[in-house]
C-alpha cells in the first residue's frame, strides 16, 4: 500500500512501518507519566471535539529521559490505542555522508508522512536536533537542524510526531519550542521495579522462594530494559536446565551478569 522511502546513497529504508498491538497495561511507569500519556491519547481520540472549539490536540511530542525507560514502548502503545500505523524512523539510515543528502532523506520521510495519519517515532532524535552552535559539529548538521525545523513547521497532516532522546541536553533550544508537549521518563522506582519483575518473569512459573521486594531493592538504578534483560537471561537458563519453575538463584545469577555488563558499559571493568 505504501512505498517506503530509501536512502539514495546506501539503499537502506529510511523508516519501518508496522502495526502495533499493545495496550496501556503494558506500561509500567510513574503514575504522573502514565496519566500524561493517557491525556495525550484522549486528546487525539476526541480531536473533533477539540478542533470544534478552535483548539488542537497535542500531536508533536518530545519523549526524553535515561535509556531503557519505556519511550519506544510508550509510542507503540499510543499507536495501538489510536489505531494509527507505527512509523519508526531509523536515523542511522537518514544521516548521509554526502553533502545535502541528509536533508533530502528527511524530506522523503515527511513526504511519506503526508500520505496518511501515522504515529511517527523519530528515535535518537538528538542526532538531527543538535545545538547549531556546537563547535564540534560541521555545517551540514547545522543545515539539517534548520531543515528539520522548517519541515516540522510546514507539516500539515494530523499524524502524531514523537521525537525520543536520551540526551535532551544536546538539543537546540529552537527545537524544544516546536513541540506541544514534553514527557520525561525516569528510571523505575522500587514499586515499579517489582512490577517489572512480575511482568517479565510470567513466562514461567515462579518459585515461592523468589522475594520480589528483595529483587527490586538490589536493582536500584536499573532501567526497565535492564530488568527485562535480567528476566530473559533467568528464563533462558531455567529452560536450558529443563526446569518449569524459575528460581531465585536463576534471577540472582542473571542480576550479577547484568551488573557485569553495566560495569563494562560504564568503563569500570578493566578485564
Identify the notable features of this structure and list them briefly.
alpha/beta, 8 strands, Helicase, Ruva Protein, domain 3, Rossmann fold, 271 residues, two-stranded parallel sheet, 11 helices
CATH fold naming of the largest domain: Rossmann fold
Counting structural domains, the number is 2
Total of helices: 11
Structural class: alpha/beta
Helix content: 40-55%
N-to-C series of helices and strands = EHHEHEHHEHEHEHEHHEH
Give the name of the CATH architecture of the largest domain. 3-Layer(aba) Sandwich
- What's the mean pLDDT score? 89
Q: Roughly what fraction of the amino acids lie in strands? A: 5-15%
The residue ranges in which pLDDT falls below 50 over 5 or more consecutive positions are none
CATH superfamily of the largest domain: P-loop containing nucleotide triphosphate hydrolases
How many E strands? 8
Give the C-level CATH assignment of the largest domain: Alpha Beta
**How far is it from the N-terminal to the C-terminal residue, by CA?**
51 Å
Strand order of the largest sheet: 1-3-4-5-2-6
Report the C-alpha radius of gyration, rounded: 21 Å
Biggest sheet: strands, sense, closure? 6 strands, mixed
Morphology call? globular
Task: Characterise the protein shown here.
The protein is of the alpha/beta class and 271 residues long. It has two domains: 170 residues, Rossmann fold, CATH 3.40.50.300; 76 residues, Helicase, Ruva Protein, domain 3 (Orthogonal Bundle), CATH 1.10.8. It is built from eleven helices and eight strands. The strands form two sheets. Strands 1-3-4-5-2-6 form a six-stranded mixed beta sheet. Strands 7-8 form a two-stranded parallel ribbon. Helix 1 packs parallel to helix 3 and helix 8 crosses helix 9. The longest helix has 18 residues. The model has no long low-confidence stretch (mean pLDDT 89).
